[in-house]
TrEMBL record, chain A:
Keyword Flavoprotein: yes
The keyword Aminoacyl-tRNA synthetase is assigned to this record: no
Keywords for this protein: FAD, Flavoprotein
Species name: Gemmobacter lutimaris
GO molecular function: FAD binding; oxidoreductase activity, acting on paired donors, with incorporation or reduction of molecular oxygen, NAD(P)H as one donor, and incorporation of one atom of oxygen
Cofactor(s) needed by this chain: FAD
FAD-binding domain residues: 27-361
NCBIfam families: PRK08132.1
Protein name per UniProt: FAD-dependent oxidoreductase
Automatic annotation (TrEMBL), chain B:
InterPro entries tied to this protein: DUF2783 (IPR021233)
A Pfam family it matches: DUF2783
Organism: Gemmobacter lutimaris
Highest taxon, organism lineage: Bacteria
Protein name, entry field: DUF2783 domain-containing protein
Length: 537, 61
């Protein structure tokens, strides 16, 4: 097989604590340097914490894994200063086409709303994504990234966790006030804690192949139901960087994974899909069975689960890494506030409330897509085929075709941290929602709203009356529209329904905590208290 | 509940005849396929999720 990518080999170094044989207590230890653990290290460091991150391996993601990254995780990586190389290397796409047999029945344009810094989606191989974050983590003096460090056992204490870690130099002990388990779908930490990880496995198998191909197909997502080249199953074609293309072939439950993985069986399939003239080489192929599962609680004492360790989704809709990164966005400001003694531990419990809610929403969406692609029984297959047959002729059936609904952030509509609206508002920016970006100007320079939101709480206000509001250790700074920033295209006014005098309280993770029609410092103080799980002194 | 469970079909005998006549020469499979398409076409006409769910419940029980 061909290789367009050279896998880096990062150096193992023995840690001074292992060499000295002393047991150190660290404020935060992250287990796993996948996309989620790396984002965690970068975000916690950005909030001023020292982080140790352990990975049992010494390279980036190997094989065919994540491809599509959505706007929100890219905005988070932009806040952390690592999005630029991803956007430069990644492939932007907008159009998806759905085929039944060899006829197009439906196409969708992601129709990204304009006036956002970050595109709706990019495609990029997971190893590039990790490579860029590893470079940023290694350059960060607050991050201690340790390769070939495998956690082999752990024990929960009252206020800390003790770990046994295996390296090429043997096993040593370390302690952490907080342990972030970002060790993937087969999480060892989850097993050690004894957490439940339940859900459903789909009775189907998929061949996932990456090929290198110079020509031919446009930068679009193509999905086939029952294609002539692969009757009775489905198939997907999607472009990545370096002229690498991702192909999925549904195989059915009876397929033999070992047999299907052999190049001599893959190549004829691909040739039928791409036509006799296509010139391609196989880069990687694997056979997967997909599942949707979630951990019972995102917090077990001093252990916090994030990413695939907390939830696993089938890849239709590209939700795994996308949602895992949003776990970290949610957790890091809370953990930083608790570690610094600014907020009570109860703030950490809201991490489960908000992100389990989001995980369930992602699982629901992924399950619905998978059930459409792999119908559960003969009756649902009949409906599926009826939808497809009708969708070629009549527009009404097209919205029922589900080859994967693309990932968007789940608003925390039921969060205990929200202060409910007391007034009428238009637009989507209700409490619990992720703040929408908008083009702005400041100091004569064009920029973006999200770039102006601070590391802490921000009051986004229109009108002259407003000043910073302090509640305990938290001070919400003021961002005045019309003064600090100019609403250059009027998008803030429409997206936020921000008329004169209106005030938004925005959390450190850029989610709306509360909003009012006028500036009321007492109401703002109460909302900050609520958003930080505080209690009246 | 807004489902109309009182007689509402314009000419009941004519409708019933049209429905069964359409499937007269069909195999079981073809008829089931047609029924599935028919459900979807009629569901679109109704549109409201609460009504559709109510109809599904009535049909299942
Ligand atoms: C075919 C396929 C397509 C996908 N497509 C997409 C997509 O388009 N978009 C998307 O967002 N997601 C997609 N995903 C999902 C995505 O790959 C995962 O969600 C993502 O990798 C999860 O990141 P993570 O950091 O939680 O875990 P992982 O990436 O699994 O990283 C876990 C890390 O922990 C380390 N580790 C494990 N155990 C230990 C231990 N005991 N001690 C120390 N280290 C340990 C591992 O070596 C690894 O580096 C896809 C997945 C598949 C399989």
């Amino acid at each position: 097989m061909l290789n367009t990518y050279q896998f880096p080999q990062f150096d193992y170094r023995q840690s001074p604590e292992q060499a000295a044989g002393t047991v150190l207590r660290h404020p935060v230890v992250v287990v796993g340097a996948g996309p989620v653990g790396l984002t965690a290290a970068l975000d916690l460091a950005a909030r001023g914490l020292r982080v140790v991150i352990l990975d049992d391996n010494n390279t980036v993601s190997v094989g065919s894994r994540a491809v599509c990254y959505a706007k929100r995780p890219l905005e988070i990586w932009d806040r952390l200063g690592v999005a630029r190389p991803m956007l430069d290397k990644g492939i932007e796409w907008k159009l998806g086409r759905v085929f039944l047999r060899d006829k197009e029945v439906y196409s969708f344009d992601l129709l990204p709303e304009d006036g956002h810094k970050i595109p709706a989606f990019i495609n990029l191989q997971q190893y590039y994504l990790e490579e860029y974050m590893v470079a940023a983590a290694m350059a960060n003096p607050l991050i201690d990234l340790r390769w070939k460090h495998k956690v082999v056992s752990m024990r929960q204490g009252e206020d800390h966790v003790s770990l046994a870690v295996e390296t090429p130099d043997g096993i040593f002990q370390m302690e952490a006030d907080w342990l972030l388990a970002c060790d993937g779908a087969n999480s060892d930490i989850r097993r050690m804690v004894g957490a439940e990880f339940t859900g459903q496995f789909f009775q189907d198998r998929f061949l996932i192949a990456d090929i290198v191909m110079k020509a031919g197909f446009p930068t679009e997502r193509w999905f086939w139901f029952d294609p002539d080249f692969h009757r009775g199953q489905s198939a997907l074609l999607h472009k990545q960087a370096d002229d690498v293309w991702r192909l999925d072939f549904q195989l059915g439950w009876e397929a033999d994974p070992e047999r299907e993985k052999r190049p001599e069986n893959i190549i004829p399939r691909v040739r039928e899909m791409l036509g006799p003239d296509a010139e391609f080489e196989l880069e990687w192929a694997s056979v997967y069975q997909f599942a949707c599962r979630r951990v019972d609680n995102f917090r077990h004492g001093r252990v916090l689960f994030a990413g695939d360790a907390a939830h696993q989704v089938s890849p239709f809709g590209a939700r795994g890494a996308n949602t895992g990164v949003q776990d970290i966005d949610n957790l890091s400001w809370k953990l930083a506030a608790v570690v610094k003694g600014q907020a009570p531990e109860a703030l950490i419990d809201s991490y489960h409330a908000e992100r389990a809610f989001a995980a369930d929403d992602n699982i629901l969406n992924s399950t619905r897509s998978t059930d459409f692609i792999t119908p559960k029984n003969a009756a649902s297959r009949r409906y599926r085929d009826a939808v497809l047959a009708l969708s070629g002729k009549y527009p009404f059936a097209r919205p029922l075709v589900n080859s994967g609904r693309l990932s968007t952030p789940t608003p925390y509509v039921e969060s205990p941290l929200n202060t409910p609206d007391a007034e009428e508002w238009s637009g989507r920016m209700a409490p619990g929602t992720c703040a929408a970006d908008a083009p702005v100007r400041s100091g004569g320079q064009a920029g973006w709203l999200l770039e102006h939101l601070g590391e802490g709480f921000t009051l986004l206000v229109s009108g002259p009356e407003a000043e910073p509001v302090t509640c305990g250790a938290f001070t919400a700074s003021v961002l005045r529209v019309g003064q600090d920033i100019e609403d250059s295209e009027g998008k803030i006014a429409t997206r936020y329904d921000l008329c004169d005098g209106a005030v938004y309280l925005i959390r450190p993770d850029q989610h709306i905590a509360a909003r009012w029609r006028s500036f009321d410092p007492e109401a703002i103080r109460a909302a900050i208290l609520r958003a930080t799980a505080g209690t009246e002194a | 509940m807004t489902l109309n469970l009182l007689p509402n079909i314009e000419a009941p005998d004519a409708f019933y005849e049209a429905l069964t006549e359409a499937q007269r020469d069909m195999s079981e499979d073809e008829a089931n396929d047609m029924n599935a398409r028919l459900v979807l076409i009629l569901a679109n006409q109704i549109g409201r999720l609460a009504d559709l769910k109510e109809a599904i419940r009535l049909a299942r029980d």
